[in-house]
Amino acid sequence: MIAVFPGSFDPITKGHEDLIRRSSDIFDEVIVGVLNNNKKNALLHSSDRKKLIEQSVKDLKNVRVMVFDGLLVDFMRANNAKVIVRGIRNTTDLEYEMPLDYGNKALYADVETIYLLTNPIYSYISSSVVKELISYGADISKFVPEAVYNYFKNINRT
Ligand code: PNS
Questions:
Q1: Structure pTM?
Q2: Which atom of ligand 1 is least distant from the CA of 6?
């Protein structure tokens, strides 16, 4: 069974990494779908977001990372995938997810979204908080995989 774990990943956090690892144990193949969304003010270009995810989970042989544009359901169809995986940290996340779930199902009836509860040790982490910390030059090592930490450490040096 192929599952898609979609998101902005701007940048990938330790919470995302944990969800990808858990998904890779459950499904035959996991495609991490990086949304290339021009409307969102992204900190990182989608190709860099993709690279950082690949480096963070390079040991997982059944995980592929792909950038996608447009509707998630079209990306699902193109990759012959019917399962979406999303992480839930709290009830705010659940409320955000519900219209997406109903919308995706209305557009593609075969699709099913599976929710994994975020590991509680990562439940306070979000890409938005990471971006804010980066803007203040704070230490993000507790929040992000090593590849992301090194990426920003090197950028700050130049
Ligand atoms: O990491 P995010 O930003 O919470 O991920 C949101 C994402 C990428 C899963 C969602 O915005 C999405 O699927 N966007 C693609 C466009 C789409 O299909 N929208 C309609 C949903 S009903």
A1: 0.96
A2: 9
